[in-house]
Design goal:
5-stranded antiparallel β-sheet, alpha+beta, single chain, 2 helices
């Protein structure tokens, strides 16, 4: 799985992501998002939801993916603990992600939301290659 490292940022939460490929990078983004919103709380894998998203660029797809996770958390009161059968693909000029979100409904006393993310931003978001890895900076508006 890819890696993430939090960095100092003025009013938001910024994280540097890296991974060997796009799938790895998105896995690292999910891990960072989860660490921000619920820290180390255990999430059971009792339910799954299918996800299919499309975008014109990998950056747009990454933001859409994280906004989808945030939607499930804030609107549907459901937390994604892990990703399964997850693939990020480029076909022609379009980018796609599909897979399953595995998690459970938010439960009082078990899940404590640490930080509410208002939005995932495009600020300084540019996925690029550094050596053998893909990297990017991701900024969450809190």
């Amino acid at each position: 799985m890819g890696e993430f490292r939090f960095i100092d940022h003025t009013a938001d939460i910024a994280v540097r992501l890296s991974g060997k490929d796009m799938n790895d990078l998105f896995q690292a983004a999910h891990a960072a998002w989860k660490k921000i919103v619920i820290d180390d709380c255990h999430v059971e894998t009792s339910e799954d939801m299918r996800i299919t998203l499309h975008a014109d660029s990998p950056e747009e797809l990454l933001v859409s993916f994280l906004e989808e996770l945030n939607y499930y958390l804030t609107v549907r009161r459901w937390i994604c603990g892990r990703l399964d059968d997850f693939r990020v693909m480029e076909e022609g000029q379009k980018w796609h992600v599909q897979g399953r979100l595995i998690g459970e409904p938010i439960r009082e006393g078990k899940h404590e939301i640490q930080v509410e993310i208002k939005a995932v931003t495009f600020h300084q978001l540019s996925i690029g290659r550094k050596g053998d890895e893909l990297t990017t900076l991701l900024v969450f508006d809190i």
